[in-house]
Design a protein that fits this description.
Keywords: Membrane, Transmembrane, Transmembrane helix. With about 140 residues, the protein is mainly α. The protein has one domain. The chain is built from seven helices and no strands. Helix 1 packs antiparallel against helix 6 and helix 2 packs antiparallel against helix 5. The longest helix has 30 residues. The relative contact order is 0.16.
Length: about 140
């Protein structure tokens, strides 16, 4: 379990870096009316891949931490009253799931766009929304210890 927790904690830095890079790339090139090239495809794909790996690590960690047992022992009402438990068991995983869904939808939809501007616009919208959610639910207090 410590290995998964370590990987989940440190892989998050890579996810954040690549997601910021992919989002910034899409926004800058959308407003700059640039052509969509192979490097743009790769950076958006890499953001998709690293975020999915992070989510998989998170799912493994969620079950390894036996949060289901915690919910059964404590009761959902009590879990919702305790900020740390609510964040770890409910808010963080749910928000990250929504972020992953947005990244996946954005990536899938951008491939169907016929113009470079359409591709960058789609990636900009979905990746920005995902980035906002990720930034909102990163446990910053733990990151800077």
């Amino acid at each position: 379990m410590n290995t998964i927790k370590f990987l989940h904690s440190y892989w998050a830095y890579l996810v954040l870096l690549i997601l910021v890079l992919a989002t910034g790339n899409a926004i800058i090139k959308y407003f700059g009316k640039k052509e969509f090239g192979a490097s743009d495809f790769r950076v958006s794909l890499f953001a998709l891949i690293v975020s999915h790996i992070q989510f998989l690590l998170g799912i493994i960690l969620w079950f390894a931490m036996d949060y289901i047992g915690t919910i059964q022992e404590t009761g959902m009402a009590e879990v919702m009253k305790i900020k740390a438990l609510r964040s770890n068991i409910i808010e963080h995983p749910t928000t990250m799931l929504i972020a992953i869904v947005l990244i996946t939808i954005g990536y899938s939809k951008h491939k169907k766009q016929l113009t470079s501007n359409g591709k960058f616009k789609t990636l900009s919208i979905f990746y920005t929304l995902a980035l906002i959610l990720v930034l909102a639910k990163i446990p910053w207090d733990i990151w800077f210890k």
